[in-house]
Amino acid sequence: MIFDVNSIRQDFPNLHQTVNGKPLVYLDNAASTHKPQSVIEAVRKFYSEYNANVHRALYRYATEATEAYEASRDKVARLINAPDRRSIIFTSGTTESINLIAYAWGRHNLGPGDEILVTEMEHHSNLIPWQLTARDTGATLKFIPITADGALDLSNPDQYFTARTKLVAFIQQSNVFGTINPAKQIIEMAHQVGALTIVDAAQSVPHHQVDMTELDCDFLAFSGHKMLGPTGIGVLYGKPELLEAMEPFLGGGEMIQSVTMEKSTWNEIPWKFEAGTPKIAQVIGLGTAIDYITAIGFEAIVKYEKELTDYALSALSALEGITIHGNAHQRGPVISFNVKDVHPHDLAQFLDQEGIAIRAGHHCTQPIMQKLGVPATSRASFSLYNTKAEIDILIESIANTIRFMTG
User: Fold this and answer.
1) Which residues participate in catalysis according to the annotation?
2) CATH architecture of residue range(s) 5-31+298-406
3) CATH 3.40.640.10 intervals, the chain
């Protein structure tokens, strides 16, 4: 497929809006992406044509819904090259996926003397669950530091990866710096000391190929709404032998095999971890989003988004008073920055008057802000439907804001 951004933009109805009389320039894709019409139509079609619960009935619509739901599981498995479809569990998002591991594995397998290793780069979703787990189990939380360039400092791995390390949880691509971390290297170092690994792939799966067979991580989590899919749907990948040994996260319908008044036994994986009526429409929508991404291909997506990111970095750097945070060699389409004497919230409000949507705040990474010594940053993040013309509008509007705010 030839990558044609103008053609791609026609697939996204939300992009063709105006804000304050100006064309929308949406640059908050690290938070959530827009949805192509095919995804919107897939969700509409489910609700309007074959709405039914899955796995539990024999009538035609229920069978059709079940087939579509399970077909999306197969699409996810193929997308990330998971050897076994039973490894794919549907959750509400990356946050729930990580909490599932923390409760269903962490609280049953960690104790005093054990160490949980995370990084200073983590989103709160991959930090707070481990703070709670450490508090409740007596395990110790340790941190791999970040460098001034927004990369992980792995210069002294023996200081962090020890015989006490039982779990290593890390983000594959930073939602602040855009840094793409050396996931395979970290996983290998963890496995050498007998630790399990959890990869937060919320920012990586939407933008480049992530391969479970190559990485060999034990768990991986990502969200649908950051990759053109619906909100409220996420994925947890786990090695089958680990998932089979874990306790359920939630109890209720569907996750059981048999129930008496005294005790219950559990369903097979992955359904053991999908209690209650699942997010059927969202799962089907996610499958359609995967179809859309697959049709374009990650090779074309990576190339185009790198062009956008390089173009934006060059243009931002040419402005007076701009500090760009993060300068890793390998990075995704995310740029966090500050403007001298202009608070990020003020900048975001000025840009909104021009129809430009960026993110301003701590990005659910308060420890990073503390390390940088700033209360917040501005963040522009790109997806496959953004254009260099939109970046030009962003740069011009930032320059106008600087002139207005600084006189």
Assistant:
1) 364
2) Alpha-Beta Complex (3.90)
3) 40-294
- Which tokens belong to 311? 């173009």
Q: What pLDDT, on the 0 to 100 scale, is given for residue 1?
A: 61
Gap between the Cα atoms of 389 and 407, Å rounded: 27
Nearest to 301 by CA among 234, 218, 204: 204
Report which residue type is found at 227.
M
Per-residue CA distances from 140 to 113, 168, 176, 269, 353 (Å) = 7, 12, 26, 30, 47
Give the distance between the most distant pair of CA atoms in the chain.
74
List, by residue range, all CATH 3.90.1150.10 domains of the chain. Answer: 5-31+298-406
Q: What is the mean pLDDT of each run of 10 residues along the chain (407 residues)?
A: 91 96 97 98 98 92 96 98 98 98 98 98 98 98 96 95 98 98 98 98 98 98 98 98 96 91 94 96 98 97 98 97 95 97 96 97 96 97 98 98 87
The answer regarding whether domain 40-294 maps to CATH 3.40.640.10 reads: yes
